[in-house]
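Sample entry (226 residues):
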Amino acid sequence: MTTEVYLIRHGETMFNQLNKVQGWADSPLTIKGINDLKKTAEALSQIHFDNMYSSDLKRAIDTVHLMKNANEVSEIGKIKKLPEFREVFFGSFEGDDIDKTWEAIGQAAGVGPEKNVQKIINQVGIYEFREATKKADPRHLAENSEELDTRMVRAIKKLQEETENENRVLLVSHGDFIKTLGIKYWNKSDRLHDIEFPDNGSITRGILNDNGKFEIVDYNIKAEYF
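Predicted structure, serialized as tokens:
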């Protein structure tokens, strides 16, 4: 069975607002984040979902419950949490200032103290960027390209197992993880260079085929345009 997957990025959080690195570290949704999510929830309120899932991080769990509570045409039971879809892990950089983190990674990548992460990725490629992230991390705990790619493949396989008899599902995940899925599975990506970072509360739509193939067909769509 082919399954339509609505990937939602969680709402704005305190760390987003404070410009801090937020991977496996967690922080609560802001008032703005909750209000913006209500727009997404309203846009999807008349779309029937067979099930809803989320990453196991609280900001994603809080987001999926907003989607569930606003939906008027679906009967969703207990939300299942899929840790495979949690955010990219940034190791020792978790909770640090984002600009200083990108500068450190830029140095490790040979680009120099660059604050614009898109420039770093487009100069060295997404794979070298992940390697530089692990290299720049003082404890070398951050996910590199192989570790993250292995987890993405495992995430898609797990999702296929969970949605075997489901036509359409909603899944709340995270910005960098969704973007990295986009680089790998969106037909408008060249699989190497950066793509735009998904907005909080944005909708990315994918198709999961029964042979396990996953393809992103709509990326980073704002609720008002859906």
